[in-house]
Amino acid sequence: MRILSDIMNATPSKIGMHKDEIDTPALLLDLAAMERNIKKMADFFVGKEVKLRPHAKMYRATPILAHKQINAGARGVTCAKLSEAEVLVNSGITDILIANQIVGDEKIKRLVNLASKADIEVAVDNQKNIDALSQAAQANHVTIGVLIEVNIGHNRCGVAPFEPALELARKVQESPGLDFMGLMGYDGHCTLKVAEAEREELSIKANTLLAETRRYIEKAGIIVETVSGSGTFTYRFASKVEGITEIQAGTYLLMDTAFKEHGVHEFECTLSVLTSVISKPSYPNANGLVIVDVGRKSISIDLGVPEVKFPNGAIVRSLSDEHGRVIINDPALDLQVGGKIELWVRDSNGTINQFDRFHCIRDEIVEDVWKIPICGVNT
Which residues form the domain of 241? Predict the structure, then answer.
C-alpha cells in the first residue's frame, strides 16, 4: 500500500538510478530484506492469542512502513510521541497506543484532538495526569483509552505492581472521559544490558509480574482487556506468558548490527549509510586511509562504531562530526576520491533520526524514496 504523503514527498529524479549515483550521505533501505522481516514476524503471531502492535518510533512514524505492518496482520501501532501518532492518524491509521505519558496543557489538547479522529490509548502512571486527561476529554466530548504503566524492572516510568496499579485502575474507572483498557510494562532491562543466555529467564520473570498484576486487578472486579509490552529482544519469551496480549516490537523491521550482535539473529539488517571518499591523505603512515563524508552527525555511534558493508575488509577507524576515517586493507582496491563506501547501521533508532528520507533499494536500484516525517527533536 502506497500512502499519498509518501508519494508526494518522493524524489522522482532518483527513482531508477543505481544506488552508487545517489548523493551522499544517504540512508539506504534494502526493501527485499525489510519485506522478509515483516513476513517473519507476522508468521510468528499466526494462531497465537497474543498479537503484534509494532513500535513506530524506530522509523519515526514513516506512514508507509506502519501500513505495511498492519497489512501483514498487526492489530495497530505503538508510538513513543504524540507527534508520531499525529502523523500516523493523518495517514489513515486509527488504532494507536502512545506508550508514554502525555502531560502539559498543550500536549493534552493535541491528544484529545487525536481522540476525536481515532482510537487512541495512552500510558499513565500518576493520578494528577489522570485528572488532567479526564478534564480535557470531558471538555471535548471524547474518550481516551488508558493503560496503567507498571514498572516490571526497567526502573523508568511506571507504578509498582499489584496494589499501586489497582489503585490507579480504580481512579481511571472513576474518571469521566477515560476508558480503562489495561496494563503496559517494558522489560527493557532484559535487552542490551544482559547476556543473551540470561534473557529468556529474566524476560519471562518480568512479564509474569505484569501478568500477575493483571490477575490481581481482575480479582478486584476490574476487567483488564489489554496487557502490552516487550520488544524485539524479548518478543519470543514474553509471548509465552499467559495474560500478555500485545507485543510492541519495533526494531525487528529494519534491524541493526548491535541487535544482531547481541542475540537477535532471525531478522536481517536492512539499513546502511552510503558515503563518498572526499580525500586520500598522503602524509606518513596514511597507507590505506581514506576520508569519507559521514561522521557522527550522519550515523549514530551510541552503540559502537559501524562496520563497513562495502568494500570487503575495510574498517572504520574513527568518526568525527562530519568526517570518517576508513582503512582500506586491500591494496588491489584503488578507491579514488568520489568513490563510494557503504556502512552498516549499528544503531537504527539514532541514525534514522539524523536523516529526512529513506532511499529504498531493490537489486542495487532506487525503487522509491520515502520521506521521514519526523526527525531530530520533536514533541
Answer: 32-254
